[in-house]
């Protein structure tokens, strides 16, 4: 009949999560600015008005996507940290994991950094972002003289800037095509992390 296939009715029991999944699909296809709430509803198989029972507007749905993405980053950080014993190795692994995250889950990565959202308007998003950063703050704190929290925060800022730069350059193709380019970027980010840690005293 020429109509796009839809579910006969909604059965998942968690419409907000399904709409977030649909939004990620659409971001993957068209970019952050290339989807609408109406299209997310269509993909999910519900009426155009149904999403607005859970999300006030498009930005609120994007904030939910970014929150889910931050939670996924946190899990990747925690897995990377758990695989190593020394703080330096933990941080190098976490930074490499972040670079891989950007490539392997690009819609999630873009939902965090390309939406232009004022994150202070969305408490759950702000909390999820802080929790992700706190995962790498613990080993950073171990590497600062006297466990100084202010210095640890400076170190985390430097490391996250390093990670963001490698991730962005990877997505722009500077490290080559995947999967080889992803491996190169992750390895170089880990190496740059170790180099920064060796010279960390210059940051303070």
Uncertain segments are 1-9
CATH topology of the largest domain: Tetracycline Repressor, domain 2
Radius of gyration: 19 Å
Relevant CATH superfamily of the largest domain: Tetracycline Repressor, domain 2
The total number of structural domains is 2
Structural class: mainly alpha
CATH class of the largest domain: Mainly Alpha
Question: How would you describe the overall organization of this protein?
Answer:
It is a single chain. The protein has 204 residues and is mainly α. It has 2 domains: 15-53, Arc Repressor Mutant, subunit A (Orthogonal Bundle), CATH 1.10.10; 69-203, Tetracycline Repressor, domain 2 (Orthogonal Bundle), CATH 1.10.357. It is built from 8 helices and no strands. The protein is globular, with a radius of gyration of 19 Å. It starts with 14 loop residues before the first helix and ends in a 6-residue tail after the last helix.
Any descriptors?
0% strand; 8 helices; globular; single chain; Tetracycline Repressor, domain 2; 2 domains; mainly alpha; Arc Repressor Mutant, subunit A; 204 residues; disordered N terminus
Short account of what is shown:
The protein has 204 residues and is mainly α.
Task: Write the topology of this structure.
Blueprint: H1 15-30, H2 37-44, H3 58-82, H4 87-104, H5 106-113, H6 123-142, H7 149-171, H8 180-198
């Amino acid at each position: 009949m020429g109509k796009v296939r839809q579910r006969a009715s909604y059965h998942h029991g968690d419409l907000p999560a399904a709409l977030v999944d649909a939004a990620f699909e659409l971001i993957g296809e068209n970019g952050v600015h290339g989807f609408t709430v109406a299209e997310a509803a269509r993909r999910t198989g519900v009426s155009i008005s149904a999403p607005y029972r859970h999300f006030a507007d498009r930005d609120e749905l994007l904030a939910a996507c970014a929150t889910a993405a931050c939670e996924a980053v946190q899990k990747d950080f925690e897995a990377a940290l758990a695989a190593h014993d020394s703080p330096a190795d933990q941080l190098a692994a976490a930074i490499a994991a972040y670079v891989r995250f950007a490539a392997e889950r690009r819609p999630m990565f873009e939902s965090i950094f390309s939406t232009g959202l004022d994150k202070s308007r969305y408490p759950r998003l702000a909390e999820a972002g802080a929790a992700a950063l706190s995962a790498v703050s613990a080993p950073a704190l171990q590497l600062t003289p006297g466990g100084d929290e202010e210095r640890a925060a400076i170190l985390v800022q430097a490391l996250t800037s390093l990670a963001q730069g490698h991730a962005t350059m990877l997505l722009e193709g500077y490290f080559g095509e995947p999967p080889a380019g992803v491996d190169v970027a992750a390895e170089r980010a880990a190496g740059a992390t170790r180099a920064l840690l060796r010279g960390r005293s210059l940051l303070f």
